[in-house]
Amino acid sequence: MALFRFGPKHCLEIQKITSTVFLRSLSDSSTDLKKILAEKIPKHLEVVKKFRKEHGSAVVGEVTVDMMYGGMRGIKGLLWEPSVLDPEEGIRFRGKSIPECQKILPKAKDGSEPLPEGLFWLLITGDVPNNKQVETISKEWASRSKLPEHVVKTLKNFPKSLHPMTQFSAAITILNSESEFVKAYNKGVHKSKYWEYVYEDIMNLIAKLPSVAAIIYRNTYKDGNTVSVDSSKDWAWNFSRMLGYEDPQFTELLRLYLSIHADHEGGNVSAHTTHLVGSALSDAYLSFAAGMNGLAGPLHGLANQEVLIWLEKVQKEIGDSPSDEKVAEFVRNTLKSGQVVPGYGHAVLRKTDPRYICQREFALKHLPDDKLFKLVSQVFKVVPPILQETGKVKNPWPNVDAHSGVLLQYYGMKEMNYYTVLFGVSRALGVLSSLVWSRGLGFPIERPKSLSTEHLMRCIRA
Fold this sequence. Notes:
Shape: globular
Number of helices: 21
Helix content: 55-70%
CATH superfamily of the domain at 136-300 and 417-441: Citrate Synthase, domain 1
CATH class of the domain at 136-300 and 417-441: Mainly Alpha
Low-confidence stretches: 1-27
Distance between the termini: 14 Å
Structural class: mainly alpha
């Protein structure tokens, strides 16, 4: 088998595709997002058709037996437009790194972190939005945020013992009563128009997610009271107030958090599940709920909780301000016991996660003297050399989860079981953007071929 038979000619063509379809037109200042997509999708569809016609038989990867037994890790078999994960650069949103996004995306008048609305615009269009375009999204989401009464009633009736992610997934599922796509599909809408109704669904769903998430938080952990949406404020500002947090720094943290967790390529469980279920023409609500059920799994969405639990063990056993030698001893003992150091290593990345770095910069700015942050910094200093010593770890550097929980703890959100819900609200921006493009490009139902071990052995012997 050949690996990447794309030559320089093909790479140049891919660059031309990117330039033609996704680079921002500086003269385009329209605030009508749906109209912009209506212009972009047909153009990109023609580019894809031409590309497939000319290069449809080109080989872009190989599949090994280890890949098949190892969770399909590294198999190239999925189109995902919003983001690409580079082993050295980290995540790039439509070609833009996290530092670039922090610099170029619009911010709130009183803030310095990018607004999630701006990242959403970038993910779904490929264009860097201006302030007016972002303000339009903020107002549109505010206008779409009201929850149906049956959803509110259901949320209020959930027992406090029910896990927040279970509540989140269930609420999203029953929101499908509002699906514009279902209504249109049942009336026989032409498949070329599918994306338009999926767009309406994803805009309604993203708008409602903070309300759903906030009700879950207030019912489960607080007084059960709810706060209405202020249409003059941005998405994250409203979310923080609905949660019950009024500290402007927490609002800034939420803006950053919701932006950097928004997308991480298409192969992770929550993204791929949303895509897979959507390929069956399940509506956006059912597709995203399925993705959230995947995110709820301990190998996907619980990593920052595991980091906090490990840090608490460090504090309990060797104190709040241990020496580097004590931390190193604790780390080595963790590894000797057959456990991993949570928050370190990544399946793809081969450097420190840029999402970790931007959170560290936030902490250095706002909470430099916090004891838990100082411990995180110390672990950042001590752990990588020890992991490198083992010779078994491809990436000894911290990922996003090594830092996010510490920031939430500092601002008073101590309820670790809720953290995955925050992750889910953020991840909607990327996976639902991709869902619009999947329907716009007419992707078919996803159905990879599976083999039994016996059949695979026969294939190899042949």
